[in-house]
């Protein structure tokens, strides 16, 4: 059997590969019948030798070839593809491509034709939140829904980094649920400082400074959906603190916010009434809806948001 896996969702791809590997792994032999080859430097001769070598105490083995299409030796790639065209009862082969591919090439089209092919696309926001819950459970922890949404926005297109972040969070919160504050402090703290500057400028109704801060965020590589998610999250904190201020109970412990962050949030919350913050929060939800449904171009939506809040 020949499989061809490709795409930018490395975690999804490797999860599927692990399922195949389980059929070739056992407690006594371990991974002895799983062979991994670097496709970028692989020769047809080396592959032929591996395909003809029988498995150790097993009628079959698994050969995994990574990044074959990165191999610059066209003649070798053609010969390798010729070898893969014929079903070999002694082995299954999985060709994995994680780099961005030119789907117009002969090699790509050949692999699609002769193999069981599957493209692994990055999950959308909803599926990514589901994946975060699954990853978190795998590593022995749980995560709140708002925290999962925030983490999905913070790491939208890098599933391997996402898993590393979850491992770190699960280790930190081994006895309790991962929450939004954990994401802010352990995953998004660097970008969050820039988002806070954007929000602070909005709160003080300084449009020019707000737009400069927004441009800096976008130029740093942060996508607009992530920026808006962080803005919504920060305004939720402002709502909490403003409500505590009105009840004369504004302390870091009461708010559940990190003491250092609490001081910064408090200085902004003092510029708003609770009613104003509630209206802004509803406005942010409408902007979020327009961006996610494609009714408003994301960058323009954020610029209009800045203009609206600074008016």
Short structural summary:
The chain is of the alpha/beta class and 311 residues long. 59% of the residues lie in helices and 9% in strands. The protein contains 15 helices and 5 strands.
Keywords:
alpha/beta; Rossmann fold; Helicase, Ruva Protein, domain 3; Zinc Finger, Delta Prime, domain 3; 15 helices; 9% strand; elongated
Protein model, in words:
With 311 residues, the protein is an alpha/beta fold. It folds into three domains: 2-120, Rossmann fold (3-Layer(aba) Sandwich); 125-186, Helicase, Ruva Protein, domain 3, CATH 1.10.8.60; 189-310, Zinc Finger, Delta Prime, domain 3 (Up-down Bundle), CATH 1.20.272.10. The protein has helices spanning 10-22, 44-52, 74-84, 106-114, 125-138, 145-154, 159-172, 180-186, 189-203, 207-219, 224-246, 252-255, 259-269, 274-292, 298-310, and strands at residues 2-7, 34-38, 61-66, 91-97, 116-120. Helix 2 links the parallel strand 2 and strand 3. Helix 9 (189-203) packs antiparallel against helix 10 and helix 11 (224-246) runs antiparallel to helix 14 (274-292). The longest helix has 23 residues, at 224-246. It is elongated, with a radius of gyration of 25 Å.
């Amino acid at each position: 059997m020949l499989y061809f896996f490709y795409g930018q969702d490395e975690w999804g791809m490797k999860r599927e590969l692990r399922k195949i590997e389980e059929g070739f792994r056992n407690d006594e032999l371990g991974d002895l019948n799983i062979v991994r080859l670097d496709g970028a430097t692989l020769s047809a001769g080396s592959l032929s030798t591996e395909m003809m070598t029988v498995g150790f105490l097993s009628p079959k083995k698994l050969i995994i070839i990574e990044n074959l299409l990165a191999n610059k030796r066209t003649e070798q790639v053609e010969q390798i593809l010729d070898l893969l065209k014929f079903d070999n009862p002694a082995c299954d082969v999985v060709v994995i491509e994680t780099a961005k591919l030119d789907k117009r090439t002969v090699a790509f089209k050949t692999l699609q034709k002769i193999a069981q092919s599957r493209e692994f696309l990055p999950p959308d926001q909803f599926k990514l939140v589901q994946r975060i819950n699954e990853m978190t459970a795998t590593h022995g922890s749980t995560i709140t829904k708002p925290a999962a949404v925030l983490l999905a926005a913070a790491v939208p297109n890098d599933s391997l980094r996402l898993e590393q972040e979850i491992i770190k969070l699960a280790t930190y919160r081994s006895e309790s649920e991962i929450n939004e504050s954990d994401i802010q402090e352990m995953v998004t703290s660097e970008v969050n400082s820039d988002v806070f500057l954007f929000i602070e400028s909005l709160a003080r109704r300084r449009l020019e400074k707000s737009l400069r801060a927004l441009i800096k965020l976008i130029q740093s590589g942060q996508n607009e959906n992530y920026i808006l998610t962080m803005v919504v999250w920060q305004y939720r904190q402002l709502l909490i603190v403003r409500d505590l201020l009105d009840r004369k109970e504004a302390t870091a412990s009461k708010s559940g916010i990190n003491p250092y962050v609490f001081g910064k949030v408090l200085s902004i919350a003092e510029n708003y009434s609770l009613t104003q913050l509630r209206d802004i929060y509803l406005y942010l939800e409408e902007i979020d809806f327009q961006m996610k449904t494609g009714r408003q171009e994301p960058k323009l939506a954020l610029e209009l948001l800045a203009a609206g809040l600074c008016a």
